[in-house]
Amino acid sequence: AQSSTNDGAINVIHEERNDDFILEDVPHLTNFLPDLPSYPNPLKKSQAYAIVKRTFVSPEDVVAQKIVVQKDSPRGLHFRRAGPREKVYFKSEEVRACIVTCGGLCPGINTVIREIVCGLNNMYGVDEILGIQGGYRGFYSKNTIQLTPKSVNDIHKRGGTFLQTSRGGHDTNKIVDNIQDRGINQVYIIGGDGTQKGAAAISKEVERRGLKVAVAGIPKTIDNDIAVIDKSFGFDTAVEEAQRAINAAHVEVNSVENGVGIVKLMGRYSGFIAMHATLASRDVDCCLIPESPFYLEGQGGLFEFVEQRLKENGHVVLVLAEGAGQEYVAKGWHAADEKDASGNRLLLDSGLWLTQKIKAFPDFPGSFHKFPEDDSRYEIYRDPTYMIRAIPSNASDNIYCTLLAQNAVHGAMAGYTGFTVGPVNSRHAYIPISQVTETQNTVKLTDRMWARLLSSTNQPSFLSSEVVQERVDRQIIDEIHNNKITSI
Ligand code: ATP
Ligand code: MG
After folding, report:
1. Structure confidence at residue 11 (pLDDT)
2. What is the Cα–Cα distance from 104 to 195, expressed in whole angstroms?
3. Residue 87, CA distances (Å) to 50, 63, 166, 398 in order
4. pLDDT (tens digit per residue) in 137-163
5. Residue 427, Cα to own-chain centre: how many angstroms?
6. Pairing between strand 427-432 and 419-424?
7. Does the chain have fewer CB atoms within 10 Å around its N or its C terminus?
8. How far out from the chain centre does Cα 242 lie?
9. Other CB atoms within 10 A of residue 66 CB
């Protein structure tokens, strides 16, 4: 393997490291159920795979988390490569699978449900697939529905979740009792960070009871804040739809004198959607994300920037991720302690806060001072977040969801358990659930992507000024970043 470094020299990456590569060296591999898989994989005889060069993925194949390794630095974690295995753990006719969806909505959930059902049925001949309705609690409080390729045929064209979802607490023991009572041996769990923690607990309890039940998680987060994996499903769709909202705001403020448009996008802790939508749209003057502190007044502050852009262009568009500026809102409104049913702290509406601040700022030449307050034509705050969450997934997410679902099915059939699926450096892998719940993926201000955004918008970085030290109360920021905050 060769790669060129910045100074143009060709640098051979340490090939000798491959020689001493042994699996024991890479502990982050997902668990097997007790006993080894012993049945031949039915895909061997499937027409679909008849001409595939290498039908099966070797259980020894691993995917490296670090793709660029500096000289003498550790190689980093490795995960098992996802895909069909030559030997499977379950006989197709003995599989009794179930699917559950938990947490908030995200484009693509229905595609994942559909493709698990079709994957199990078309690839492995599994007929017994139950839909658990209404999230985790549905295991013991609602009727299940039988899922067939026919019953899920069209669901990918709809937003939301075909199985319904819920937030709020659940009883792991009752769920595992229910899994046992129904004779379920494969559990597919689609949901966010909370859901995956729940899945880890279910898988532990299953193990404790010595049950031969595979637990597979499919990580869901519209914010793209799941650690380890390259990108979460629904993210592309969200960015595309966010662009449309930005475009609409831009058209509006462009049509008036001194229009200021504020668009709030998803991103509780991670500004990926705001960052990518800004980079994609080019209509954004300034993008504010939770990871990057900013300040309003004074030299180099947001107000100065807005005023300057208004003078130059006659309009300005600001994009704000929902977690951005929470430290100010919390300070001003003293109401940051509300929690949702799952115990996540509720976010305050920083978009509304920023809009009010901009309206109130005395020196603006902005349109607010030119029109009477009750003139709704010049409302400039847009919150498209719930609209974005509810749409069906786009083409690329649909394909991505198919890969996630099929790989989850291959993994469970092979007897892996307590794992999630996802691409790591563009190769799909099986990742132990704990790896994706331990940390959150956030925009690294020190990475190149944020620098690309700053160069593209030419906005201030808000980092150099002492005002940041003065105005941003670190304690509040830390508190916000260490607590689970959500909006529902
Ligand atoms: P998102 O936040 O992306 O919408 P989520 O999966 O994090 O999705 P939550 O409402 O937090 O959404 O949780 C969904 C389900 O997971 C709930 O039924 C809840 O009981 C369970 N859950 C949440 N947090 C935990 C946890 N720490 N441990 C075990 N289960 C949890
Ligand atoms: Mg969550």
Report:
1. 33
2. 10
3. 17, 20, 36, 28
4. 999 999 999 999 999 999 999 999 999
5. 17
6. antiparallel
7. N
8. 15
9. 14
* Count of CB atoms situated within 10 Å of the CB of 305: 20
83-87, 379-383, 471-475, range with greatest mean pLDDT: 83-87
| Widest pairwise Cα distance in the chain | 76
Q: Give yes or no for residue 103 CB within 6 A of ligand 1.
A: yes
The residue type found at 254 is N
What is the C-alpha to C-alpha distance for residues 421 and 319, in angstroms, rounded to an integer? 31
Tell me, what's the pLDDT at 31? 77
Separation CA 411–CA 417 (nearest Å) = 8
Q: Is the CB of 102 under 6 A from ligand 1?
A: yes
> In the structure encoding, which two tokens stand for residue 86, read together?
């030559």
- The secondary structure of residue 333, as a DSSP letter, is H
Cα separation, 244 vs 111, whole angstroms? 23
**In sequence order, which ranges of 183-223 are alpha helices (DSSP H)?**
193-208
Angle CA 106–229–221, to nearest 5: 15
Q: Whose CA is nearest to atom 12 of ligand 1?
A: 103
Two structure tokens written together for 41: 């994989």
Ligand 2 centroid – CA 278 distance (Å): 24
Q: Mean pLDDT, the chain, as a whole number? A: 84
Question: Which residues are 346's β-sheet partners?
Answer: 486
Of 336, 484, 405, give the one whose Cα is nearest residue 129.
Answer: 405
Catalytic-residue membership of 223? yes
Burial of 88 (0-12, 13-18, 19+ CB in 10 A): buried
If DSSP codes are grouped into helix, strand and coil, which group holds residue 288?
Answer: strand
**Whether ipTM exceeds 0.90:** yes
CA dihedral angle for residue 178, residue 161, residue 79, residue 409, rounded to 10 degrees: 60
Identify the H or E element spanning 218.
strand 214-219
Question: For the stretch 96-122, what's the b/e string if a residue is b when 16 or more beta carbons lie within 10 angstroms of its beta carbon?
Answer: bbbbbbbbbbbbbbbbbbbbbbbbbbe
How close is the Cα of 170 to the center of ligand 1, in Å?
A: 9
17: pLDDT confidence band, cut at 50, 70 and 90?
Answer: very low
281-328 pLDDT, tens digit per residue, is 999 999 999 988 888 888 888 988 998 998 899 899 999 999 998 878
The span from the CA of 193 to the CA of 139, in Å, is 19
At residue 376, the pLDDT reads: 31
Residue 34 carries which DSSP code?
Answer: S
Q: What percent of the chain has pLDDT over 70?
A: 83
Task: Assess whether the C-beta atom of 168 lies below 6 angstroms from ligand 1.
Answer: yes
